[in-house]
Design brief:
The protein has 212 residues and is an alpha+beta fold. Helices cover 34% and strands 26% of the residues. Strands 3, 4, 5, 6 and 7 form a 5-stranded antiparallel β-sheet that branches. Strands 1-2 form a two-stranded antiparallel ribbon. The termini are far apart. The N terminus is likely disordered.
Length: 212
């Protein structure tokens, strides 16, 4: 009888000890700053915030401040270089074609060629696309009808500091690689070339003329 009673009481003691041990672990975890999660110990307090290494990996403060989209700086024309007796000033290499992909690839080739030959490229840009309608007149009568619509694409590569002795060599290399259907021209950069890139605002010009 006593042996059977001992066997019954032993599981009860084991359950009591397990519950007491679990309660002691919970109270210890609350009091100490170190929390036990399974077999790993995790610190409840973040000590790294007070260390000198705090902030490593941040780069936003190193970037220049971004300007707001509402306040945009007015586009101003850069000073045009007049050149000297031995070198040209600002020159525009203009490429025009009806095929946009063709003229775009040729403009990229000219830009890379100037970089390889150590020729300073100020900028490379696209001009506004122009559309021209071809009208034909009927054989009998004066009525016209639309025959075709031609779209012209133009790219400009602006260079400066080109030597007068090296200019013929550069032109010969560009012309030897000029694809069919692309019109090539080179001219000095002027103020009119800069203004033609900007969108005309006739209403604003009329108001400014009235105010003046």
């Amino acid at each position: 009888m006593c042996a059977a009673l001992g066997k019954v009481l032993c599981p009860g003691k084991e359950m009591f000890l397990k519950q007491a041990f679990a309660l002691s672990r919970v109270t210890a975890a609350r009091e100490s700053p170190i929390c036990a999660v399974g077999s790993m110990l995790l610190s409840c307090n973040r000590h790294y915030r007070s260390q000198p290494t705090h902030g490593i990996g941040r780069f936003r403060h190193l970037l220049p401040p971004k300007l707001s989209k509402k306040r945009r700086d007015k586009i101003r024309m850069k000073e045009i270089s007049a050149g000297s007796d031995h070198e040209y000033g600002d020159l525009n290499i203009q490429m025009t074609a009806y095929d946009m992909c063709l003229v775009e690839h040729f403009a990229q080739y000219v830009h890379k060629l100037c970089n390889r030959l150590s020729i300073r490229v100020n900028e490379s840009y696209a001009m506004p696309t122009k559309t021209m309608e071809v009208m034909l007149v009927q054989e009998q009568g004066s009525r016209q009808y639309l025959d075709a619509v031609l779209t012209t694409h133009q790219r400009v590569v602006q260079i400066s500091g080109l030597s007068s002795t090296f200019a013929p060599v550069l032109l010969e290399v560009i012309q030897s690689n000029q694809p069919e259907g692309v019109h090539l021209s080179m001219k000095e950069h002027t103020e009119a070339d800069f203004k033609i890139r900007l969108k005309a605002r006739p209403e604003l010009e009329e108001l400014m003329a009235q105010m003046s």
